[in-house]
């Protein structure tokens, strides 16, 4: 090849790179690949910790999730509302690897394809999930439950030999304080109130320091006071963790929400502040019209 042709080729590539840079605000997908990337580390330089595109899943021909598009920013506390059967829990099943979608993309940061991972791997990557019913070990103390949360990935033998190191001890103390159970550390979990059991389970998730927490109806069955304390707890978690919270309790949503996403028939019906979505005719219709 002549030096002239080489020069022309180089100029074409340079022009293409310039164009890519301006295609999106963040510099296009190529910008992500231009940085060194550590395997398993969540790359949030594109401003998204979770990204779902055109995700669908059917159960016996019924589309529970239908072309769902949704993304969440790092440190965001996103509220998800929607009528019964809208697909909220199914969406969490897909993110956590419990259900495989028929089509679509699910990314954790811009480089980790969650569909290439199974449930335990996804938990290991830093996505914690809280189901509605508390699942603490009732016979064990609050302390033992939190300690156990650090051992889940160890074999039985290693678990028996397990001792908290000082960093883990500090983490446990911090979590105890966060979940307001510092004064109950030696109590048996079975003797806690329903709300306290829920907090303990959230504490068990926090022991793993998850980057993203998915919480499905966390205040169901709580007293008003417990609900108010849970709102404070979630507000204290945002920023350090990203949270996706599904709830039917609108006073709770009002207390914690920034952006609210309304799901209906497996896709996003509306998104905005709680006031905005509550004033949306389509939202009013799905809540009241059927
Ligand atoms: N494993 C499954 N097999 C068959 N159908 C399912 C399965 N999981 C969910 N569905 C159906 O998918 C639809 C969405 O259910 P999903 O539990 O996600 O709704 P939801 O928004 O969480 O509702 P709720 O507010 O009542 O918890 C429902 O019609 C449900 O019956
Ligand atoms: Mg549900």
| Unique ligands | adenosine-5'-triphosphate, magnesium ion
- Major pleated sheet: 6 strands, mixed
SSE order in H/E notation?
HHEEEHEEHEHHHHEHEHEEHH
Return residue spans where pLDDT drops below 50 for at least 5 consecutive residues: 22-28
| Total number of helices | 12
Strand proportion: 15-25%
Share of helical residues: 40-55%
**Overall strand count:** 10
Shape: globular
Radius of gyration: 22 Å
What class would the helix/strand composition place it in? alpha/beta
First-to-last CA distance? 71 Å
The neighbouring-strand order within the major sheet is 6-7-8-3-9-10
Average pLDDT number: 87
Provide structural commentary:
This protein has 290 residues and is an alpha/beta fold. Helix content is 40%, strand content 20%. It is built from 12 helices and 10 strands. It has helices at 3-23, 28-33, 88-95, 119-125, 142-148, 156-161, 166-178, 194-207, 224-237, 250-256, 274-278, 281-288, and strands at residues 50-59, 62-72, 77-81, 103-108, 112-113, 127-130, 212-216, 242-246, 260-264, 267-272. Helix 5 (142-148) runs parallel beside helix 8 and helix 7 runs antiparallel to helix 8. The chain binds adenosine-5'-triphosphate and magnesium ion. Adenosine-5'-triphosphate binds next to helix 3.
């Amino acid at each position: 090849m002549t030096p002239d042709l080489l020069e022309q080729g180089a100029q074409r590539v340079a022009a293409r790179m310039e164009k890519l840079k301006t295609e999106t605000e963040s510099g296009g997908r190529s910008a992500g690949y231009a940085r060194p990337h550590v395997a398993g580390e969540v790359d949030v330089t594109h401003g998204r910790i979770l990204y779902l595109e055109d995700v669908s899943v059917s159960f016996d021909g019924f589309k529970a999730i239908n072309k769902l598009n949704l993304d969440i920013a790092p440190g965001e506390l996103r509220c998800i509302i929607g009528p019964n059967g809208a697909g909220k829990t199914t969406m969490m099943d897909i993110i956590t690897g419990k259900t495989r979608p028929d089509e679509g993309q699910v990314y954790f940061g811009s480089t980790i394809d969650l569909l290439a991972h199974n449930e335990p791997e996804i938990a290991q990557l830093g996505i914690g999930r809280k189901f509605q019913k508390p699942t603490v070990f009732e016979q064990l103390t609050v302390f033992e439950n939190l300690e156990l949360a650090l051992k889940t990935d160890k074999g039985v033998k290693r678990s028996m030999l397990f001792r908290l190191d000082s960093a883990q001890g500090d983490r446990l103390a911090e979590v105890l304080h966060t979940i307001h159970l510092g004064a109950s550390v030696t109590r048996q979990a079975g003797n806690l109130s329903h709300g306290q059991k829920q907090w303990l389970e959230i504490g068990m998730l926090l022991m793993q320091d998850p980057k993203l927490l998915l919480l499905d109806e966390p205040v169901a069955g709580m007293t008003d006071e417990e609900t108010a304390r849970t709102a404070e707890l979630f507000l204290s978690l945002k920023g350090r963790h990203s949270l996706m919270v599904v709830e039917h309790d609108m006073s709770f949503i009002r207390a914690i929400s920034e952006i609210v996403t309304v799901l209906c028939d497996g896709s996003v019906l509306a998104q905005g502040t709680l006031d905005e979505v509550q004033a949306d005719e389509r939202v009013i219709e799905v809540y009241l019209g059927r």
